[in-house]
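Journal club side-thread
Mid-discussion, someone asked how the predicted structure for our own chain would compare to the paper's figures. Pasting it here so we can look after the session.
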Amino acid sequence: MKIYRISTFLFICFGAGLAFSPSVKAATFDTNFTQSLTGADASKGDIWLNYITQNGTKFNNLSFVNKVDILSNTPIANVQAGSTSTPGDKNNNTGAASTDKGDKASAPIAVSGLKDPTGAEIAAFVGNKNLNNIIDTEDTGSFKMNLFFDSSIQKDNTGLDNLFFWERGMNSDLGIQAIDSNGKLIGKFLQLNRQDQKNAGYSIDTTEIDGAQQVGSWGVQLKQLGVTSLSGIQITTNADYNGPDFKVIARSGTPYYQAPPPAPKKVPEPNTAVALGLFAIGALRVVKKKSLVTD
């Protein structure tokens, strides 16, 4: 009888603990984007992030990665003459994190390819609005790197996420933990699991794969990381994570949406402007001649 009561008590306490423990599942959000190409090429071209919507709130006040310190990254090995980072018979699939982009997408610099990327190269590909500029991770590789945002990320009372992740393939995990301005770990470690991803609504076909793959997304609040502010995040992966191919952007301050400026009006080419000017002069002469005949 005593054993039954004790077991029941422990069961109730355990259940209560689960009920009141903070959830580690990443929340969901909607990605609004513009694709530069259409049809079969849509997944290969630029895909520009316009804004994020969550809980009915639309915002595009965002903070981007502007510095990366690579603490470890499995190096690319066994590079043979004629080998390449693109799919095919001579594909070299070693290493861990490298920079990648859509087959026909623009990028701030060339992809790292068969060269181990620098922190500056990682920052260039993560730190922009082009969702077809990503970090590609090989399945058996591992890395640890500190990503710093261009502004401090602060906890607020909006109930919205602070960090937004996109992962190509929807088949990988990612480990994250907050860091301060010196790169010191703060708060607690959080593993983002593949089964918690939400379909982001688009696919990408990048140089290191031979077809389009669906992109998933995770949203994370600072409270899930056990902090009220951060300067960046430490991202880790190992062979168990199945090679996450990702991008991350943060929300900066109270959410607001600012519409992009209107597209600039096209200025006529010099030859076109000259032709229009000659046409105007000719038309004016015709009008004058008609006026003289009438008089």
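Post-session note: The chain has one domain: 25-251.
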